[in-house]
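subagent[fold] <- orchestrator: predict structure for attached chain, return tokens only, no commentary.
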Amino acid sequence: MRVEHFLYTAQNPDKTALIVGSRRLSYREIHQMSDQVANALIKENVQRGERVALFMENSVELVVSIFGILKAGAVFLIINPTTKSDKLEYMLNDCGAVGLITSEKQMDVAKSIHVASLQWTRLSGWESCLNDPSPPPVGGIDLDLAMIIYTSGSTGFPKGVMMTHANIVTAATSITSYLENTSEDIILNVLPLSFDYGLYQILMGFKIGGTVVLETSFVYPQVVVQLLIKEKVTGFPIVPTIAAILLQMQGFSKDSFPHLRYITNTAAALPPAHIQRLITLFPTTRIYSMYGVTECKRVSYLSPDQLSIRPTSVGRAIPNTETYIVDTAGNKVPEGIIGELVVRGAHIMKGYWGKPKETSQVLGPGLYPWENVFYTGDLFKMDAEGYLYFIGRKDDIIKVRGEKVSPKEVEAVLYAMPQIAEAAVVGVPDEILGQAIKALIVLVQGATLTEQEILLHCKAHLESVMMPKFIVFCQTLPKTTTGKINRREASVLL
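subagent[fold] -> orchestrator:
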């Protein structure tokens, strides 16, 4: 099965598939519009397996373009609309993108880049390409590449995670099975589709023949709460930031959401206190705590009936997946012993685009001679019943709202300020974000620089998820014996 076949799952093609603001589109309409996008791409000479990037906010056009690209036999990548020009240029050059579909809002950034492989950029007049309603030629199999998701790496350069149609279908099938999704579900998504957690709400919603209500963000919480009630939403994916805001809001009670069947949380663990308050506020709603990584989408989930029993656990492996923990030599460790989490499953990525060395560092031999498994780089322990407990990360990557942030990438932006002599970026625990970014700064002798000036500089060059929450000025930073800045020691500085 290929991902574009998700549009065929609705028993009633005239059923509402997508709600965006005042627009309500049926499965038939999305199917037909995505056919037109596919035909437009084919006329642009987009070939099977070539990469087409999407650079825009959550919208009807973004959703339709995803399926149009897949129907053309091509590969899509969604880039966060707050991405700056240098990073956008890097990603498009890295994967050899042949096309870029963007919006008027992102036009200035898109026009400023240079990508050798880019044949065309669709900046405006999106509707003008919707002029050939005929079914596009069918081609490709489920082992073909479907999407690339860029995730920060320890080198500071984003890595393109390659996911096939089979990878995506496997993940979506597993997740919808434990969530017990049906075609009656109405899912409200306020997360960006450039974040795989947000993207999968569309993919899973369409797979089950349900309805997805798509918002651009959670900037206006009261509007989102009203949508939960108005659209009789049954499923609501959140991150800890959203949970914290919901719990502070006034004007609704535990009886306000009679249709809300489940809430899911990933990106970072919910604080136990927030879990108990959510249970009180949503007494008839099942709350799922989950853990995942971009390289295989989802790893584990904690059944709602275990929330009070194991509030610090991220659950057990999702259906059709196995997990185990190994020591530094790659040997399985007993229960209760800390080691690296390893994942087996058909949803594991094919590798990082154009980076065989980095791929070989995370995909390696498993329990059986015929397989490669994924070494997550995350430290865990497991109890006697197979429940997993997150301990920390082996590398320096920081996870903010579930999105990976490379310290080196933020440090490079800081070092562009001539007043800064040394900089170290570390992650610190944060109840809402999971981890927050702290930047430790040593100024050039005699230089002056304010926290506000640093933050304004960062805002001009970094995505919002990469912005430091704390700026700390230091006289010096701790070093290793080889003279490198010691981030672990730096992380405990005030």
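orchestrator: received. Logging for downstream: The mean pLDDT is 90. Residues 46 and 156 are 31 Å apart (CA to CA).
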